[in-house]
Every structure is written in structure tokens, then in C-alpha cells.
Amino acid sequence: ELFGAVEPLLPSLREDGVAVWVLGRGPYPPGVVALQELLDEASDELEPQDVWEPRDMNETCLYIFTSGTTGLPKAARVSHLKSVMCMNFYELVGASSSDVVYLALPLYHMAGALLGVVGCLGIGATCVLREKFSASRFWEECRAEGVTVFQYIGELCRYLVNQPQ
Fold first, then answer.
1. What is the pTM of this model?
2. Domain 85-162 has CATH 3.40.190.10
3. For residues 107 and 129, what is the distance between their CA atoms, to the nearest angstrom?
4. Looking at the predicted structure, is the pLDDT value of residue 50 above 80?
């Protein structure tokens, strides 16, 4: 439903070598990958384990970007092991699939993407994503969404404490 906002940018994205994947039924212009069609065509059979299982859990699984607080933002390597450990983060702190997790951290950061979103996937919890943190709207948003867990780093709690009652 949001593809219309991206469509005018397709020529410049192609020039920059950016792949555009869309989940939903097309039709889409040439060069746009329609994921739903690929999912429909995919086999229900699992690939052999040696295709999808990492040879070494310490190998690179993905890269995230640092926030740049100690210099320019840069890519940081995350191993398969660390990714799997992030899936268990919320379970370690007592959360479960019945929880609703409020997340207003940037998704390019490990705390937001891996501990936050992947952590919710790991326990099957609902994740409420906010584009940015707002101390003045925090409690209202939490009540409206039925939030039971709030993930934070840094100064977010201080901002909440400094809000009027």
C-alpha cells in the first residue's frame, strides 16, 4: 500500500544500485522484486541443512551501523552467535509471548533491531514500533497499545521522570 510513495524514486534508486523488494501482489514495474510471488512459488521442503546452517557461529551474520557518538557512524560486524543470543534477550529478562513491547530505538542500531525486533520474534511477542521517542506522549501511547515492556537505553528514563505528572 506504500509502494506509490517509492515509485517516483525508482529511477534514482536503480542508478544507485538499490534493490526494491515489495511484499504484496503486483503488478510492479520491471526491476521491482515482488516477494509475494516468490513466496507463492517457493517449495515447502526445507533446503539441506548445509545450505542454511552457518559453518561457524562466529562468522558474520549481518552488519549494523553504530550511532556515531564516538565518531562517524560505521558498520559493525554481528556474528550468527550474537544474533541468536539476541533472539533470547527478552526471555532472559522474563518477558513472554503475551507481552507487548514498546520500541522507539533506531532500527539501524543493535539495541533496536536485534535486541528489540529480533528479541520480540524470538519469544513471539508483539512489538509496537515508534518512529522516535516522545516523553510527553509515552504513557498515552503505552496505554493505547497495551504495552507491558519498554526497552530503553541511555537517557530515556530520565526524560520520563522529568515530565510533569
1. 0.65
2. no
3. 10
4. no
